[in-house]
Amino acid sequence: MKPLSDRTKGLRQSDIRAVTQMVNAYNGINLGQGICDLPTPDPVKQGAIEAIKKDRSIYSYHSGIEQLRKDTAQKFRDFNNIQCKHDTEVMITTGSTGAFVAACLATLNPGDEVIQFEPFYGYHVNLLKILGFKPVFVPLEDKTWEVDFEALEKAITAKTKAIVITTPGNPNGKVWTKTELEQLLGILQEHDLWAFTDEVYEYMIYDDNQHLSLASLPGGFERTITISSFSKTFNMTGWRLGSAIAPEHVIEKMGLISDLIYICASTPLQYGLDEAFRMDQGYFTQMKKDYNVKRDMFCDAMEQAGFEFERPQGAYYLFANFEKLSQKRNGMANDKEACETLIKEAGIASVPGSSFYNSPEDGKYYLRFCYAKEFDVLEKACEQIKGF
Ligand SMILES: Cc1ncc(COP(=O)(O)O)c(C=O)c1O
């Protein structure tokens, strides 16, 4: 038999599946997978049921149904402060992941380099690799996640074409500040680079932090592909719906690429999702409030157990350091061992930190926990962690 493609060689199942199997065997609580177990809002579910009943079953326009593009564009204007046009500068995609693939294929050539800050969201890196592009890593300051702009400048070569920014960040919950984004934009302009911004956690923000889109800064829109998702905002990761905005000539090509790869996002689900735009704004206030309580509850428990970290500024993950803890306890010599020990002794699953770094050594003393859980489940998890 002829071998499989070269691009499949480095591909392997992430640690998350093995961790899930193990925590299930111990009847524990899974804070590993980045999945939120909260319900999808009723109007959205009803809207999809209605659309299916009405046989809205044919392919939609590749960039999405018109009403959803109109409402999404309005959301980008109101919430993100980006003045985009719904008919030419917005598209609905199969999750933010579909948007990221289209963004890469629309702007990059084989061998082009793309800067990726560490710790990173693994899909970005692995997608770049299988698509034939080269991720180049720039570490954020350990623990504080500050940007080292000198290191960034040094990483830029003649082959660099784009920079990926995830704000709020997964796994570290970093929210990029205005000053950081302005400095970054200066570098993008100086070296004539694209930015792909992943803003899927834009509504999950804590304390006085504010979500700011790079594309809302003067001069930002023309070189940014802003990628967002409905997965996290409306607890619908399995519906596979996201969005992107960019200048017209980019969205045109991204639309054509998406058309070739999957034709369109699911039509009846797009109709269902559109109902979300008619929901009371109280939905967002409540969500923010609930996540604030969950973050504090979880961080308090983790501090009590001896983990070290800066509290997340956004998103719903805690990336916790256990280097000091490892000196006091057995079974915590590295991230994989610590992950196993925590499942066996506290019934809590996490993700080993090395999954978020190019060099596994850099994540050796980190674990990522997802606290997007129902209150009763999270309370139980906190009790188990405090007893660890
Ligand atoms: C940073 C980040 N981007 C994108 C995604 C995937 O989003 P979607 O479901 O819209 O493809 C995730 C999911 O965990 C994520 O953490």
General description of the model:
- The chain has 388 residues and is an alpha/beta fold.
- It folds into 2 domains: 6-40 and 282-386, Alpha-Beta Complex (Aspartate Aminotransferase, domain 1); 57-278, Aspartate Aminotransferase, domain 2 (3-Layer(aba) Sandwich), CATH 3.40.640.
- The chain contains 13 helices and 12 strands.
- The chain has helices at 15-25, 42-53, 66-78, 95-107, 122-130, 149-155, 178-191, 248-262, 267-274, 282-304, 323-328, 335-346, 375-386; strands at 29-30, 90-93, 113-118, 134-139, 160-166, 194-198, 224-229, 242-245, 317-321, 348-349, 351-352, 366-370.
- The termini are far apart.
- The relative contact order is 0.18.
- Bound molecules: pyridoxal-5'-phosphate.
- Residues 34, 95-97, 121, 166, 170, 198, 200, 229, 231, 237, 242 line the site of pyridoxal-5'-phosphate.
Q: Quickly count the helices.
A: 13
Report on the biggest sheet.
Answer: 7 strands, mixed
Would you report the number of β strands? Answer: 12
Helix/strand/pairing class, anyone? Answer: alpha/beta
What CATH first level of the largest domain would be assigned?
Alpha Beta
Order of helices and strands: HEHHEHEHEHEHEEEHHHEHHEEEH
Overall 3D shape: globular
Name the hetero compounds present.
Answer: pyridoxal-5'-phosphate
Overall mean pLDDT: 96
* Separation of the first and last Cα atoms: 51 Å
For the record, the count of structural domains works out to 2
CATH architecture of the largest domain: 3-Layer(aba) Sandwich
CATH superfamily of the largest domain: Type I PLP-dependent aspartate aminotransferase-like (Major domain)
Q: Major sheet: order of its strands?
A: 2-8-7-6-5-3-4
In helices, the fraction of residues equals: 25-40%
Low-confidence stretches: none
**Oligomeric state as shown:** single chain
Note the beta-strand portion.
5-15%
Instruction: State the CATH topology of the largest domain.
Output: Aspartate Aminotransferase, domain 2
Radius of gyration: 21 Å
